[in-house]
Amino acid sequence: MLPPTFICAAYLSKGPTDLYPGTQKSLRRIDFCFEIRNRKDEGKMNTNSASKKAISMVCLIAGIILLAAALIQDISGSGAGWRGPALIIGAIGILLGMYLFPTLKHHRSIVNFIFVFPLLFTFVVTVIIPLCLGVFYSFTDWNGIKMTGFIGFANYKAMFSEPSFLWSLIITILFVVLNMVLVNVVAFMLALLCTSKIKGLSFFRASYFLPNLIGGIVLGYVWQFVFNNVLIKMTNNISLLSKTNTAMMAIIVVYIWQYAGYIMLIYVTGLTQVPKDVLEASQIDGANAVTTLFKIKIPMIAATITICTFLTLTSAFKQFDVNMALTNGTGSVASFFGNYLTNGTQMLALNIYNTAISKNNYALGQAKAILFFIILAAVSIIQVRIPIRRRLKCNGYEENSKGSAYSCCDCYRSVHIISFLSGTY
User: How far apart are CA 137 and CA 151, in angstroms?
Assistant: First the structure.
């Protein structure tokens, strides 16, 4: 019989054990013992994994059931008082079940998810669930409190057969097109002024940007006072808000005054990114200011122009507060069917609000809101997917072979307002 130390050394070294009689037999016994021990350990691990998996599945199923029951009770309009606790306990059960799932990689993913969960939960509760409920209610006769049944596409048919809604949709589109052009032109001219070499740039920058910091409701009432008490002396005692055509012009003026400063800020950032050596080279070559503007500056800030265009477009579509405070959508106008409408200055967002809140027709208001959402989603998708071929170098990144490009758009979005106002750009 060989000494145990020799056998262990031979086992660990895996050397030429054939020279020693009885070593192979002893090593086989050691392998057998290790195999039995490994099987026992694997059995314990499998048992623990199975128990953890069972517990996690129970937590997941219970959490999903509680969440579904709470949502069903909320949709059906039941007055059960356990909906809130069931929603919270269900969410906790789902998180606990996902965390107890027995894999290390899964644990790391769940830990990452737990850190993101507060923001994700808030987004789901305040955006995703209301959106889904809005789509659901648009196919019902919901009156804000209860519903009696589904009515299919009746709300959508009534929406497109309503003259006031069609008028609001048309003037909203015209308002968007006009402001998309005027706001960008005014903002670009202000940006050229704020990047020129004149005294008091910090004062001008702060003054132009200040209207954007005022709320739309306050801004509407301030300009209502201006139109009805100040400018009326210049228009033969006739207020611009008294007629539909001039009232829409007044809304456009107020919107440009409010939003042009914000768009100017983005244009200033784009103009400051134009390389100075390119501008100096153009001056050496004899280019004047107009040629430099149209041949160098504008092509090199094409990405900035695209961003500002779509920002203005989406903002003009969502115009509500100024429209409500300035005219409240009033104004007589002839409709397409021969009769007169009383919502001559009522744009789409205000029309949705009046349909749901003032007229207490929440289902029809939800149908209009869904159409409004589809329009804004289409605009946003176009903004993301639009092919911009004229992407130039910006901060060391340039267009790759597949057409996807990196640009300095992120630096436009991360503008520091304090630096902008203090004139450090």
Answer: 10
Q: Is 219 left (phi over 0), alpha (psi -120 to 50) or beta?
A: alpha
pLDDT tens, 365-423? 999 999 999 998 888 888 777 654 444 444 444 444 333 333 344 433 333 333 443 34
Q: What is the pLDDT of residue 368?
A: 93
Distance CA 366, CA 137 (A): 7
Average pLDDT over residues 153-179: 91
Amino acid at residue number 335: S
Residue whose pair of structure tokens reads 């027995």 in the numeric block: 102
Tokens of 347: 């744009």
Sign of CA dihedral 115, 117, 120, 126: negative
Residues 184-239 pLDDT 10s:
999 999 999 888 888 888 888 888 888 888 888 888 889 988 888 888 877 777 88
Angle at 310 between CA 308 and CA 312, to 5 degrees: 65
Residues 6+ apart with CB under 8 A from 172: 317, 319, 347, 348, 349
CA 135 remoteness from chain centre: 19
pLDDT on residue 358: 86
Q: What's the pLDDT at 105?
A: 61
CA end-to-end span of the chain, whole Å?
88
Packing angle of the helix pair 302-317, 362-385 (nearest 10 deg): 180
* Single pTM value for the model: 0.68
Residue 341 parent element (H or E): strand 340-341
**What DSSP string runs through 281-335?**
HHHHTT--HHHHIIIIIHHHTHHHHHHHHHHHHHHHHT--HHHHHHTTT-B-EE-
Asked if 91 and 63 count as a contact pair (C-beta separation under 8 A), the reply is yes
